[in-house]
Write a structure and sequence with these properties.
Number of strands: 37
Organism: Quillaja saponaria (Soap bark tree)
Strand content: 25-35%
CATH superfamily of the largest domain: Peptidase S8/S53 domain
Mean pLDDT: 89
Distance between the termini: 9 Å
Main location: secreted
Strand order of the largest sheet: 7-10-6-13-15-16-26
Keywords: Apoplast, Glycoprotein, Hydrolase, Protease, Secreted, Serine protease, Signal
Subcellular location: Secreted, Extracellular space, Apoplast
Largest sheet: 7 strands, parallel
CATH topology of the largest domain: Rossmann fold
Number of helices: 19
Protein name: Subtilisin-like protease-like protein
CATH class of the largest domain: Alpha Beta
CATH architecture of the largest domain: 3-Layer(aba) Sandwich
Length: 777
Amino acid sequence: MAAFPFNSASPLLFFFIFVNLLSESFVLSTDQTVKSFIFRVNYETKPSIFPTHYHWYTSEFAEPLQILHVYDTVFHGFSAVLSQDQVASVSQHPSVLAVFEDRRRQLHTTRSPQFLGLRNQRGLWSESDYGSDVIIGIFDTGVWPERRSFSDLNLGPVPRKWRGVCETGVKFTAKNCNRKLIGARFFAKGHEAGASSAGPINPINETIEFRSPRDADGHGTHTASTAAGRYAFQASMSGYASGIAKGVAPKARLAVYKVCWKNSGCFDSDILAAFDTAVTDGVDVISISIGGGDGISSPYYLDPIAIGAYGAVSKGVFVSSSAGNEGSGGMSVTNLAPWMTTVGASTIDRNFPAEVTLGDGRRLSGVSLYAGAPLKGKMYQLVYPGKAGVLSASLCMESSLDPKMVKGKIVICDRGSSPRVGKGLVVMKAGGVGMILANGVSNGEGLVADAHLLPTCALGANEADSVKAYISSSANPTATIDFKGTILGIKPAPVVASFSGRGPNGLNPEILKPDLIAPGVNILAAWTDAVGPTGLDSDVRRTEFNILSGTSMSCPHVSGAAALLKSAHPDWSPAAIRSAMMTTATVIDNRNQPMSDEATGKSSTPYDFGAGHLSLDLAMDPGLVYDITNNDYVNFLCSIGYGPKVIQVITRLPANCRLRKPSPENLNYPSIAALFSSSSKGISTKTIIRTVTNVGPPNSVYSVRVDSQPKGVTVTVKPSRLVFSEALKKRSFVVAITADTRNLVLGDSGAVFGSLSWSDGKHVVRSPIVVTQIEPL
């Protein structure tokens, strides 16, 4: 938990503490290296002589600074390029609340709507008119607008509330927007200014990029069509996953905000500008598959994504974010702010199997999206370059393979350090005829299919070890690879993806993250024409659709789901929409057994899946919702030790924290986490308060049930019945969680889990319960 002890600190002290938290190497000296910074300004202190904040900033702060963006909707302030001495000078201004060094972020990289329970002409698709007139803002790498997924055939006029534009640029004109893709913008000033200690990075490389909303990478086109792609018949990726491609909200409108650039990531200053602009433009949902690339999250007051998201949510915009791809280790989930909906990744019931046959007759199962000439059962010599103990060779890094060793052979390459498809290119250049991509312990049994350039099969850790053992024990090891196409009806599914970011929440474990999981493995969606399906420069193939995996793919599923729910329930808040998804999420797979973890094969836990797997056939009618107001979020920030000025950095307004600090567990979240001190010996009780709002039949009675009460823990709920009427739509209840620390046996994850459910005979409103111990501060 973070505590900020300087409620009345001067702006200069404020600045020094912020910068020291950001980078220990940042020293205010004579170093005149310029970098880009973001300044949070107290907008209420603007002198009346200036007609706008822009005039104020450019007059009072700009000279001799280079201002990049001015923010005035979800955030008040500006970003600028300046030296460290200039930062020290500007930070002393009494209106400057905080300073952030601009940071680079990374992207978290057909059948899934049906897998979520969506059906034509009935249920949520029908009730919401497929998301018509709801606007989804996609923060990503842009869009390739010519795809069928972005057709506006039979769509009505652009919603009147839309205030955005179709920004033109290289190979992108106003005609590229239509009644489906209603707006497109690009943000490059932060990117071009750079945030490198060595000085500004190179400008946009226009030989591989478009200075426009056009997508040179593919990631943004894929996420946009996943959220809201139109029906595209006879879709596939080189024959794989053939069928009808469609997004979760096929009639929702799309507004694309290009904040990420090919090979160079996404900068906070540009992301914050996109938040500011998108809310002004009139979006209803923001989908952001972006975060830190190391699984480490900054405190909310140092995280422009969290700050921008708060500004959006406070104005009624739902924000869906990816949980990160740093799993399967604990505390790897990112995008932790409680006002954001954080989405992990799961498999669906479709797979692309491939099979390795060894010379001794053994057959090993893996996956692949290879679509070229097959090996036709021919056996080739098998070689493992890592056998000699050279790490770069075992990973098949660039220029690491000796052609004499691998030419004409199938090569085993260990996963890690470089792109999976890039390893295959290295093998090809060295003359290899095929590749076995071997998982290590950290990847476990989690498999990701890729559109490889040469015959390739990805194997889980156990079978990869079997192949290596075979090579060591055989005088003439041989193998071949067969490709099985597309298989439907895979069991078990869903399974928590091995790479998906896991809890506990590293900032505030009282808030369970991720919130839920959604399809994120082997997802078919639209693709750019700028690059081939592997994204490699040497891949000359072009395809309308591509198959990708990552929490980047799961996030837009929830964004599309939020659009459907917003269309069906226009008066619901972002918190109510999230609650509907979480309390109706499933924890059971298609075998009617508890969901498992792809990495281990064991049962998964709420640290892996949050409240469970998105189940949209139930979310439309959840019965009860856990709503959260802006004041509730402010009270939460007070409860974790933030002072008024620090809270103002996040919320734009200074807070009046009560003398008696509230409990962070009492944020009205759909999940419940109880933390007990490890120093406590004996019996301890945590009392947690929740309030539910009836959104179902007005005269309803709900009864509580506590499930999976773990050993050493007793959970009691009072009252045990909630009675609602026309006049009484909100009811509060108390959850008392008592832990006998002498008999409490924590699992491998350091926690035990249960759940409570409210039911009226039709609806089941389920909340996970997490009980854990923490070291005292």
